[in-house]
Design a protein that fits this description.
Structural class: alpha+beta
Distance between the termini: 16 Å
Number of strands: 7
Number of helices: 3
Shape: elongated
Length: 149
């Protein structure tokens, strides 16, 4: 299966594979650094374009991993459905909430400015609620880790 941007997409088992390097090992957690790249970061013409970007992300893997060492290269494996769920919580649900508040406010005969501000005011509240439920959400976003050959 082809590799693209350090991520392998496999259609047969609906999983996403990331390669990363172990940054820190705690008794019950391992922290793995992965390089998250935009789709065009691997392009041969990226030096001519300003659209390419890459960011390092730290992924927490819960569990006891005694056989792993610092700076060891590992493979992270997660379900494809986790990506869809993340998109839903991060983008789709806030968009629906924003539009609902704007439409409801307009139906209550508020001005467009007040409706737009009300819609925008809902977003910090939504992301605050998401932040407070982060521990519960971590249980839905679970990665497995294995050594690379």
């Amino acid at each position: 299966m082809p590799w693209f941007c350090n991520v392998e997409f496999t259609n047969m088992d609906n999983t996403i594979h990331h390669t990363g390097i172990i940054e820190r090992i705690d008794p019950d957690k391992v922290y793995v650094k992965i390089c998250q790249q935009s789709a065009c970061a691997g392009c041969h013409a990226k030096s001519m374009c300003n659209a390419s970007e890459s960011k390092d992300r730290i992924i927490e893997i819960e569990g006891v991993y005694d056989s792993f060492q610092l700076n060891e290269e590992v493979e992270l494996k997660g379900r494809e459905s986790m990506g869809y769920l993340a998109i839903f919580y991060a983008f789709l649900l806030p968009l629906l909430l924003l539009l609902t508040v704007i439409i409801f406010s307009l139906e209550m005969n508020r001005s467009e400015t007040v409706s737009a501000l009300a819609g925008l005011a809902v977003l910090p509240a939504y992301y605050s609620v998401l932040y407070f439920f982060r521990d519960k959400l971590k249980k839905k976003f679970v990665f497995a880790m294995k050594k690379l050959n």
